[in-house]
Amino acid sequence: MSNDASRDFIDNLPELGPDETFCFDCNPDVPCFNRCCAELTLPLTPYDISRLRRNLGMSSEAFLNTFTTLRSFPDTGFPLPMLRMLDGPEEPCPFVTPAGCSVYEDRPGACRYYPIGRGTKMAADGIAERFFLVRESHCHGFDKGTSRTPHQWMENEELQAFNEANDRYMRLMALVRASGKPLDARMATTTVLCLFQLDKFRELIAAMKIFSHVDVSESRKAAIMEDSQDGDVAALYFALDWLELMLFGQSQGLAKKQL
Question: Which domain of life does the protein's organism represent (predicted)?
Fold first, then answer.
């Protein structure tokens, strides 16, 4: 779906106020259970991929090659990995089973949000957000369920870490979009490595001696190079800061070393 089509789709959804409630539950007792896990157009963020590939015990390269199709945002040139559906009837998600999601603890943020959507844009005080309700004809999750506000839903689905990482990622894309200069092919390739292949990004840090060119505390260095999920979060935030520094000569979270 193009950016314009995505905006049109969102604009046609009913908006939810931050204190407005909706009733929804999804579980094996709902008649349409697993139906929403097929024929998906599901983009994956860097944080999504870091969680999924660790859940599956795969390298980032193997995960990207096995489970994604790489596209790009036309207005920014940023890479856009799309989750690849399985071939066959109804094109199911590769992670869905009759019992539900096989990677449930590390499922992508978009799956956690369903049936609401969250739209964001840069604001003077940070990120401004809007919520939308997605009601599909096949879905029976609205027939009965728990009443929650959007923020209660986000808490229930443990979305805070996803929002923080994804909002920082969206901030960098917003800066590139505002510059009117999409990433060229070389920079797009670098961005794939830095954001979507954090295990390889650590190798790049060592090979290029990146830490010797920027002001980074010893504790942050150790966190970035730690081979763990927490280390991936630290590496992702460093990668976003470093890319911003390379693209714009300055970054909120990182500065060049003064020689």
Answer: Bacteria
